[in-house]
Amino acid sequence: MSKPKILVVDDEMSVRSVLVQVLEKYGYAVTEAADGEQALERLEEKNFALVITDIKMPGTSGLEVLKKTKQSYPDTQVIIITSHASLDNAVEALRLGAYDYLFKPFEDLTLISAAASRAIETVRLTEENRRLLATLQKQNRELERTNKILEDVACRDGLTGLFNHRYFQDCLRSEIDRCQRDNDIFSLIFFDLDHFKFYNDAHGHLEGDYLLRQLATILEKNFRHSDVVARYGGEEFVVILPGTSKKDAQHMAENMRCFIEGFPFNGRDTQPSGKLTSSIGIATYPEDGGNRTELVQSADNAMYQAKKSGRNGVCVA
User: Fold this and answer.
1) Among 255, 258, 249, which residue's Cα sits nearest to residue 281?
2) Which residue in the list 32, 107, 207, 235 is annotated as catalytic?
3) pTM of the model
4) How far apart are CA 100 and CA 94, in angstroms?
5) Would residue 92 show up in a list of annotated catalytic residues for this protein?
6) Tens digits of per-residue pLDDT, 16-72?
7) Do 10 and 19 touch, CB atoms closer than 8 A?
8) For residue 228, what are the β-bridge partners?
């Protein structure tokens, strides 16, 4: 472990000599400076844990050394050496950030080592606290990332990566609250793949899962970032469209129906219609339901109406 570094600054060689002898006896690495200018040069050359400086020196004073030290090296502690007659200067030094002061001539040399020891311990504790804080901040960032991952996993569908049914219900509740507060509207779209059981039976569940993932990607890419796209269950998907009228929602749904119908899904030619299609239902808040249950039921009924009407269509509540 390296020795703590101390810079001793005094224009009197005899004073410096006493300080150096006492401090080196207690295991400190001591550097000398004969005046304020030399002290500032030494400070640029290496890092010191402690500066012990006389307050009155020709040229750059000890107060100037104190000010510049605390400006450039805030963690470096400074002990001022003064006389009993200059106690006011010592108080001023403390106000400017000095750690402590010593009176000269030195009547008790143990006071020098005791003051130095306290100052060095303050530096050590400051560094240790900084390391602990950095460690805690790193751990907090890692915890936040972990929580974000867990939160994301909790609200995502395991197969498609879309939002899951629970998250959809939470968003639906929040959207209704928002519309009640802002006197706004939103629309709800229900998608259901036609004859999906037939596709699973013909190609197997692995291919069926792959098809659902493809459809999830298509839905996510073709709706707005403000829309909430979720897997409702099985081959059913749902989209919340904030601030969207029924007419606009119907236009968006029709575009998506055509896109799905024309998309080259693997094995689509084995479907009853020779292609993969969807049945879509639309409901708008608040005209088709004033709460979650009523609105979902309206969109679901519209979707089944699309199925009863021959599938591959869009129906509104």
Assistant:
1) 249
2) 235
3) 0.61
4) 7
5) no
6) 999 999 999 999 999 999 999 999 999 999 899 999 999 999 999 999 999 999 999
7) yes
8) 240
